[in-house]
Design brief:
mainly alpha, single chain, globular
């Protein structure tokens, strides 16, 4: 085991660290993180509109009238319906700032470019079909490419310089004028060629060739197991698995939950919506207490461990763990680079992924139809992500029981190893 650990530390960790700090992946990750409040607001609006509690629905209709749901619908229009535009602006801004160039100008040019590429309706309106999660791949690609070209042009001589004394906002605007003009001409030309020769938009091409196959694969149990395993494999070596994988899996899983939400809002039962594996699937049923389902580990510590160090870590980690913040237990126990915790830390999430997938696929538990803040405590999150079903809570309790039982034997082994080490140290001192 020590040889394997040594190999991973010397060979794998540097590569994973470089991937995790790669400029474009970091910008993509930060871009999604920045718009997460809007995503959660839009998701909660849909959940509130469709909460399956008759007393609540009747009360809202009697107080605010039959059109009370239009407020939540408008909130959806300002969040999920334009998710692609929000992502493009946010990613472009963060990438430009990493190059120390004007982030606002880059973001505006990216939005303009994306709108040029977006199909229009018969009355020349922008099609909502492609401004939301369904167009997210094109939004990500466009924002990265446009920002890279903007960087090259803004650092070249193709800019307008203003004399000293001119306000900074005016200087930035004129400096971005020629680069923006060149970029929009190129994007407009690309759109004209696609319309003339392919008779399809770039959104339709990417969705058919890339997005649909990826979404079909990502909704399977094997792909869910791979995601759960890789996330925790990275975490074990002290690398933030969620942040490293986020830029890759967010564009895949967000459209899936968006489709579930849309169908749920249209009146479809949460049992009948199509997608099982979504971001809330992992957050609610696998990452309870944080990566590794460490809230179960904390419970196991209180149940069976007597060692002062472990119990102290458990007490300090309990309150943050309720809100899915688990750095205290990951680095305090520790789990990171602890060979005795390697197996349960990787195995527990995989097992819970399987149990959760089976529960949803067999129709025992509704599929996820809402995104809640990642700090939402277990039990509450299980109720909310299923659109208000108690069976989501039952699945969480079952998973927590399984995870706790799986952690207990490894805690015993770890405790014995620590006691042995303490005894040997005391003998040497004596």
């Amino acid at each position: 085991m020590s040889k394997v650990m040594g190999f991973m530390e010397s060979k794998f960790m540097p590569i994973a660290g470089r991937i995790g700090s790669q400029r474009h992946l970091v910008a993509t990750r930060d871009g999604f993180v920045s718009i997460m409040p809007l995503i959660i607001v839009g998701s909660l609006a849909v959940l509130l509109n469709n909460l399956p509690i008759d007393a609540f629905q009747n009360f809202m209709a009697s107080v605010f009238g039959e059109s009370w749901k239009s407020v939540g619908g408008n909130m959806w229009n300002g969040s999920f319906a334009i998710l692609g535009l929000l992502v493009a602006a946010s990613i472009s801004y963060h990438l430009a700032k990493s190059y120390h160039i004007d982030g606002l100008s880059a973001a505006l040019v990216s939005i303009a470019s994306l709108i040029i590429l977006t199909p229009v309706t018969e009355d020349w309106g922008i099609s909502y079909a492609w401004t939301g999660a369904q167009g997210i791949f094109v939004a990500v690609i466009t924002s990265l490419l446009v920002t890279e070209l903007f960087k090259v042009l803004i650092r070249s001589k193709f800019t307008i310089s203003m004399p000293d004394g001119v306000p900074e906002g005016v200087v930035k605007s004129f400096k971005a004028l020629i680069p923006a003009t060149i970029i929009l001409i190129l994007v407009g030309l690309i759109q004209a060629l696609l319309t003339s020769f392919a008779e399809k938009s770039i959104f339709e091409i990417v969705f058919t060739v890339v997005q649909e196959p990826l979404q079909a694969v990502s909704n399977s149990l094997p792909s869910a197991i791979v995601v759960a395993f890789l996330n925790h494999f990275l975490w074990f070596f002290g690398l933030h698995g969620t942040n490293i994988l986020g830029p890759i899996i967010e564009p895949i899983y967000l459209p899936l939950i968006e489709k579930n939400q849309q169908l749920f809002a249209d009146g479809m039962s949460a049992f009948d919506v199509p997608y099982i594996v979504t971001k809330p699937f992992f957050d609610a049923y696998v990452y309870m207490g944080g990566s590794g389902t460490t809230i179960a580990l904390i419970i196991a510590i209180f149940l069976v461990v007597k060692t002062k160090h472990y119990r102290t870590v458990g007490k300090l980690s309990a309150a943050p763990g309720v809100f899915n913040i688990n750095e205290p237990v990951i680095f305090g126990l520790p789990i990171v680079l602890n060979p005795l915790m390697f197996i349960p830390f990787l195995l527990v999430p995989v097992v819970l992924t399987v149990t959760s997938y089976l529960a949803l696929s067999l129709g025992i538990v509704p599929k996820t139809v809402a995104i809640v803040p990642w700090t939402t405590p277990p039990i509450i999150s299980g109720y909310l992500v299923t659109g208000g079903s108690w069976s989501g809570i039952v699945l969480q309790l079952v998973n927590l029981t399984i995870a706790t039982l799986m952690y207990i034997p490894f805690l015993f082994a770890s405790e014995r190893a620590q006691l042995k080490k303490t005894t040997e140290t005391s003998d040497k001192i004596a």
